[in-house]
Amino acid sequence: MVKKINKENNKTEEVLVTPKEPSEMSTSIVRLECTTCHTNVVTENSFIKFKCPGCGEVEIIRCERCRKSSNIYKCPKCGFEGP
Ligand SMILES: [Zn+2]
Ligand SMILES: [Zn+2]
Q: Whole-model pTM?
């Protein structure tokens, strides 16, 4: 479930709405894990998602922790590595 939220603050962001009972709604949960550390970022407040600069097909997801420590990510498809 993706909800567009655009009120109170000016920026529009896509927010994944986490259901109250995750275990019972597991089929509808989109699992997003950090490409580098495989943390499930759905529960995190800030992460970034972008297409791989190498192949442009794979979505690279980075959690805040990996971003702050500039961990290297690696594209599972083309092997592109970046900070
Ligand atoms: Zn990470
Ligand atoms: Zn790639």
A: 0.61
